[in-house]
Amino acid sequence: MAGCELCEQPGGELIHRADRWRVIRAADANFPAFYRVVWNAHVAEFTDLGEADRRLCLEVVCAVERVLREALSPTKVNLASLGNVVPHLHWHVIARFDWDSHFPQPVWGAAQRVVEGGAAARLPLALPDLDARLRAALAAF
Question: What is the pLDDT of residues 108-118, one digit of tens each?
Fold first, then answer.
């Protein structure tokens, strides 16, 4: 769809692309383990998908969450499908840590602290290795 950011560009660092969906890593220095599951076709709402596609979409979201939990042991994983700014179906899957700049506030809330040395350096796994684990898990779909 013309003018839709997620139709016209990947939306971040492409981790895996399938026929109906893709997973990207958002470029956010404060939240380096911030991924999005993006539905490739332009639909605004989850219920715009048929039952099988809804199930597939949630399975992919769960696969991303599972990898983040296993690889990073975050304090919490945030899942959200907002789409207020970009009305194209996508799910946020964000590993959160009690040391992150905004915790326990949402990522769009007020910062609570400065993370010395940067958030990516605090992760127990380097981002290229995390991305590789996600690619391996998503290849099963």
Answer: 999 999 999 99
- The predicted-structure confidence for 66-109, as pLDDT tens digits, reads as follows 999 999 999 999 999 987 888 899 999 999 999 999 999 999 99
Q: Where are the domains of the chain?
A: 5-138
Has domain 5-138 been given CATH number 3.30.428.10? yes
Residue type, 87: P
The letter for the amino acid at 106 is: P
pTM of the model: 0.95
